[in-house]
Amino acid sequence: MPARDLPLLIDAARIAGRVATSFVGKTARRWDKPGDAGPVTEADLAVNDVLQTTLRLARPDYGWLSEETEDTTERLGKDRVFIIDPIDGTRSFVEGSHTWAHSLAVAEAGVVTAAVVFLPMRGKLYAAAKGEGATLNGEDMRTAQQPDLSQTTVLAAKPALMEHFWKSRSAPTFKRSYRPSLAYRLALVGQGRFDAMLTLRRSWEWDIAAGALIVTEAGGTCSDQTGRPLVFNNADPRLNGVVAGGVPAQAALIAALA
Fold it and tell me: For residue 257, what is the DSSP state?
């Protein structure tokens, strides 16, 4: 099944890229979601519409979970579900940056089986199918295996360094970098460009699902901030943070967290 779903996700991601890039980020109509949930643009909704039409026509028996579709309990009764972020990094899209991404995944019984993270403005298409490895533009990729946490580069927002998150009351010594899209952060870890990533806030499944499979299929590991495996298609589609990386770096970060 993953092999059958992955080409569908790749084709859909490329369609999404054509739709999104037909808008000009800085001039696309935008507004703020209720409850301080962040910005949304007309491009987000247009991409969501085309993905929902394309994917659900192809797999009418799959459930649907997307940032830009009102959630219902219908998906909870499905064996398989699409987990979609039409544009991950909407603020970057609005600013005219090139670091936003389309994040598409299929989960079966809580486990992601096929995944794509596509950055149309950078021409980067990350893909993975369970048990079949991970690729960037069709080329195999592997996570870094840096064993010394002090030598790692970790993708993280500054709030993740706050002292109360760490056993020693301060973050370990590592080099911090940042990208606004969580899906892109995970994909970069899978590529081996960075050793690890972490986010210690409650994280929506649609930001994480595709990138998590890309990391693990590239030889890394991915868990919540307590080290527990990630499970998807939950009634409350939020995860207890995410820590991902090459096996040594990810284990070291988990061990250091309070």
Answer: B
pLDDT of residue 182: 97
Task: Report the alpha-carbon distance of residue 150 to residue 57 in Å, rounded.
Answer: 49
User: Quick check: 1 pLDDT over 90?
Assistant: no
pTM higher than 0.90: yes
Q: What is the pLDDT of residues 159-216, one digit of tens each?
A: 999 999 999 888 899 999 999 999 999 999 999 999 999 999 999 999 999 999 999 9
Whether residue 35 has pLDDT greater than 90: no
Select from 3.30.479.30, 1.10.1740.110, 3.90.1150.10, 3.30.540.10 the CATH code of 2-140: 3.30.540.10
Fold of 149-256: D-Maltodextrin-Binding Protein; domain 2 (3.40.190)
In this prediction, residue 108 carries a pLDDT of 98
Residues forming a β-bridge with 139: 136
- Tell me phi and psi for residue 24, to 5 degrees: -100, 115
| Domain limits, the chain | 2-140, 149-256
Q: Mark out the alpha helices in the chain (DSSP H runs).
A: 2-20, 42-58, 90-95, 182-191, 205-217, 247-256
Closest by Cα among 95, 100, 136, 74 to 17: 100
CA distance 165 to 44: 33
Query: How would you classify the pairing of strands 153-155 and 175-177?
Result: parallel
- Sequential DSSP letters for 160-228: GG-GGGBTTSS--S-EEE--S-HHHHHHHHHHTSSSEEEE-S-EEHHHHHHHHHHHHHTT-EEE-TTSP
| Residue that the structure tokens 């309070």 belong to | 258
Burial class (CB in 10 A: 0-12, 13-18, 19+), 211: buried
Give the integer Cα–Cα distance in Å for 94 and 64: 26
